[in-house]
Design brief:
alpha+beta, Diaminopimelate Epimerase, Chain A, domain 1, 18-stranded mixed β-sheet, 4 helices, globular
Length: 270
């Protein structure tokens, strides 16, 4: 049997395996089976923690519910950071992800702050299939902005009406060769956004940390909000600051342990 933790950040939930010091027989097919909410443990993403490298305290690998491995997950980063800080009795750790090194710090009250680094706006960086103005472009007849916050995002400044059909259509649009997360954001005032998300490979989730970062950055880039905002998601609020001094995006929010369990991974082998 293999131990796991069920954790979540504002309801965006994860099955977390600690593979440091031992092998773990997990691939895309078994991750998809584990994520199934009827026949598996059930989660939005499967997270694997491995030994640190490149000066990081640990490496984090992320599998979406469809089994695909992705670059970054803000809510999962907070959860893994909480585990590492509790384990080492430190108030800061660095996590190595495919999207880059992420510095994390205890923000008090059960909250964790993650330095997500500087967002990217170049069409090749997102990536897009062709050159265009990533601050304003049209997709499916809608005004959109594109941002990379360790992974690709398409931000729509509109209500989430039609998210069930628009989300998957834009996720797989030919403009996004690596597919994309899709944010539906409305501006409440200069310091507050309301956002719902269609996550690449997972569908509608109650929260998306990188999506909240992307929406906040896109809103400020258009002059709609201040650099620091509260983004209200289905699962609750995240505080996002696009720091002026170095252009880095800081994300602050909770990381919650739901329960501990064990699973026989042979039951989920492909």
């Amino acid at each position: 049997m293999t131990a796991f933790l069920k954790m979540h950040g504002l309801g965006n939930d994860f099955v977390v395996f600690d593979a440091r010091g031992r092998g773990l027989a997990l691939d895309a097919a078994s991750a998809k089976a584990l994520a199934d909410r009827r026949f598996g443990v059930g989660c939005d993403q499967v997270i694997v923690i491995r030994e640190g490298r490149n000066g990081a305290d640990a490496v984090m690998r992320i599998y979406n519910a469809d089994g695909g491995e992705v670059e970054s997950c803000g809510n999962a980063t907070r959860c893994v950071a909480r585990l590492l800080m509790e384990e080492t009795d430190r108030d800061g750790v660095v996590i190595d992800t495919p999207g880059g090194l992420l510095a994390c710090a205890d923000a008090g009250g059960g909250n964790v702050t993650v330095d997500m680094g500087a967002p990217k706006f170049g069409w090749r960086d997102i990536p897009l299939a062709r050159e265009l103005d990533t601050n304003h472009f049209e997709i499916e007849g809608l005004d959109a902005a594109a941002v990379n916050v360790g992974n690709p995002h398409c931000v729509l400044f509109r209500s989430a009406d039609g998210i069930e059909t628009l989300g998957p259509k834009i996720e797989t649009h030919p403009l996004f060769p690596a597919r994309t997360n899709v944010e539906f954001a409305t501006v409440t005032d200069r310091t507050h956004l309301r956002m719902r998300v269609w996550e690449r490979g997972a569908g509608i989730t109650s929260a998306c940390g990188t999506g909240a970062c992307a929406a906040a950055v896109a809103a400020h880039r258009r002059g709609l909000t201040e650099r620091k905002v509260e983004v209200k998601l289905d699962g609750g609020p995240l505080v996002i600051e696009w720091r002026e001094s170095d252009g880095h995006v800081l994300m602050t929010g909770p990381a919650t342990l739901a329960f501990k369990g064990e699973v026989d991974l042979k039951d989920y082998a492909s």
